[in-house]
Design a protein that fits this description.
homodimer; alpha+beta; HIT family, subunit A; 3-stranded mixed beta sheet; 6 helices; 25% helix
């Protein structure tokens, strides 16, 4: 029997219809995936630093910020083909019945390694910790520009997830507005708080722990869960236990715990699901105002294991062909989470 | 220079960033596309009628509704693996902090031809007229069930757009609620009306005609346009001139004019863009209440010519790598629209 499930934060229904489902293990199938075209010279490899725009940040392999004379483990550079640019202003104007505005914002690239690795799961837990620290440093840096309202940190792993260069990298976008998905989450958590005087995500976590059906893993500071109103097979969230609207305010212990969860999750997809393409991103509160105090930052990973078809595009309602209970069980039983 | 453009109905920004663009003609490139796996016996072919669930509607090649003893051109049947089912009730219940509800609704399939055609563009203009009539008949039939609030008509053309059977068919979903995208469009047109005492879509069409930059084609009753705040390369709308919230109330002349536009659009994609995979759907007002009088029904076709990546999923803001002005010009100059 298919069912509707409501996401309590977005206040939107999804449809879980497993009649057409594959069993979780079938998602492991060998599959021919479209790959990123190879380039002769990779601009992200060690030695080709001059091929990228001027560097913003450089980290060494101990996790220290270093200057350009030093060897690097990670670099942050502006995107060479940016979707947003800083040298204009966020002022909209009328154009007939429409509104239009210069593409103001920042679009940066985090290069994950001096070596030509093509999968983020090649990073060690320690290196993922450095990556998390890079994200935090950049948000704190960007925050000084008062025209920026929100920062989006995301990764496209594999061509089918939108990657256009195979060398592992993530991207940082800074926007002069809160994007619609974040606005909806902020609005939803505010509405929930007004009604219950509680954080929706804190309540959700409390219920999930009690139910013990969709929690894949927990450590001192984080939960790894398959969300109840999952929009995608194996959609995976990493959520901090401590209520905090802004990712950049994570404590240093929390950053370590986050890296630990992230490593397990990435390894699960790489080793246990046969390396599917996926996107991940961090939903973190707006930078410049505290109205989002009810918001609870979190990480989401969305594997490309199903296609968003006409129904999903037309309606905004996703049809998920597996239950999160089933995928959680499968994950928990795997070598990665069961050792 | 990238730019933000605001959709006046959804009140959401998109980013048009053409620095990373292909030229429109490059979208024509030969491309290896993932295809729907072939089945030995197609349940939609003539002679295999017993392989589908019991038929709901049968049309002959003159466009008349006929009984099962007659030859058919199109058939409507329930989906054999439905995402929604009619034999339950739309009553939600609490489950801890969440809400849950049986998957109540209808999920039907319109088989476009007794022959094994794999592309909807193989239908003639006359046959597309019959298909439009089938859509209208089904909505009018479904309307009698007062538990249904909205109907979604959609097509997945090709595997990359989500088709799982290659025999050309479209799908009809009936839902006990208005889905989020429709709700937003209804809310947006209401807000616009309150402010301007005008229909947003009527104003948009008037402006588009005056500008003459994004109108690809018009006939007596319809416009074919590339939307100003386009979310996808070659996103194409077919919009009726006459303000009307509900597609099923189209006049019979209008149905003919719509079929004419639809034929041209489908032929353009098939012949001039090298048969990309795509989705189309009709956004039509809710069935059971008249609160959506400011809504203006329309048709949208979304080609799979770019990938929704991490940024789009994380934010809900789409990045479009072509301008609708450029694609409109390309379409107008093509053999299909220029003859």
């Amino acid at each position: 029997m298919p069912e509707y499930r409501k996401d309590i934060i977005l206040d939107e229904w999804v449809i879980i219809a497993t009649d057409r489902a594959k069993r979780p293990e079938n998602f492991r199938e060998e599959k021919v995936r479209v790959q990123v075209p190879k380039t002769e010279v990779c601009p992200f490899d060690k030695g080709n630093e001059s091929m990228t725009p001027p560097e913003i940040l450089r980290m060494d392999s101990s996790g220290n910020m270093v200057d350009k004379s030093k060897d690097w483990l990670m670099r942050v550079v502006p995107n060479k083909f940016p979707a947003l640019i800083p040298y204009t202003s966020p002022t909209s104007s009328r154009y007939g019945v429409y509104m239009i505005m210069d593409g103001f914002g920042l679009h940066e690239v985090v290069i994950h390694s001096p070596e030509h690795i093509t999968n983020i799961s090649k990073l060690s837990e320690f290196e993922l910790g450095i990556l998390i620290d890079v994200y935090v440093r950049r948000i704190k840096g960007i925050k000084n520009d008062k025209r920026i309202e929100s920062v989006v940190i995301m990764l496209n792993q594999g061509r089918e997830a939108g990657a256009s260069l195979e060398h592992s990298h993530s991207q940082i976008f800074a926007l002069p507005m809160s994007p619609p998905v974040l606005e909806k989450e902020i609005y939803g958590t505010k509405r929930y708080f007004k009604k219950n005087l509680r954080c929706a995500m804190c309540d959700l976590l409390e219920f999930e722990v009690k139910e013990d059906k969709r929690v894949v893993f927990k450590n001192r500071d984080f939960f790894v869960i398959q969300p109840f109103a999952s929009r995608n097979p194996f959609e995976t969230w990493i959520v901090p236990k401590r209520h905090s609207p802004n990712f950049e305010n994570a404590l240093s212990d929390e950053k370590e715990s986050f890296a630990h969860c992230l490593k397990l999750v990435l390894d699960f997809f790489y080793y246990e699901l046969n390396d599917p393409h996926y996107n991940y991103y961090i939903h973190t509160g707006p930078l410049q105002y505290e109205a989002a105090g009810h918001f609870h930052w979190h990480f989401e990973l969305i594997p490309k294991l199903s296609i968003k078809a006409g129904f999903e595009i037309a309606t905004g309602i996703d049809i998920c062909i597996t239950t999160p209970e089933y995928t959680a069980e499968f994950m928990k039983a795997s070598r990665i989470f069961n050792s």
